[in-house]
Amino acid sequence: MLNPNARVVICGQISIYNDANPTLIRPFLHKLIYRQIEIRGLSVLFFKDHKKFYPEMGQWIIDGKVKVRETVVEGFAKLPESFIGLFRGKNIGKMVVKCS
Question: For a Cys staple, 65 with which of 23, 37, 60, 95, CB 3.0–4.6 Å?
């Protein structure tokens, strides 16, 4: 449950880009309107100055202030399957394929 006047950032919707019947937001639309909840899209392209971001974020990850969630798949042979899974929402966070 979100508080009134809450702000929500929507990011990482790649799993529904090609969905013929997107239903992700429809059931919640009336709640967003009546609670005056703001949703704002986020893209890395909006932030041009990365020189300050990367050192700070790297330290926050090391310090445990930011938790990184990712799906790791082992083996180059799983690359096509992993790529398709990315578009079907089979991953949590970044999809990484480790190749030996």
Answer: 60
| Cα distance between residue 97 and residue 78, in whole Å | 8
pTM over 0.85: no
Q: In angstroms, rounded to a whole number, what is the distance separating the alpha carbons of residues 64 and 61? A: 5
Nearest to 14 by CA among 96, 98, 91, 97: 91
SS3 annotation, 33-96: HHCCCEEEECCHHHCCCCCCHHHHHHHHHHHCCCCCCEEEEECHHHHHHHHHHHHCCCCCCEEE
Residue 40 sits at φ, ψ, to 5 deg, of -130, 130
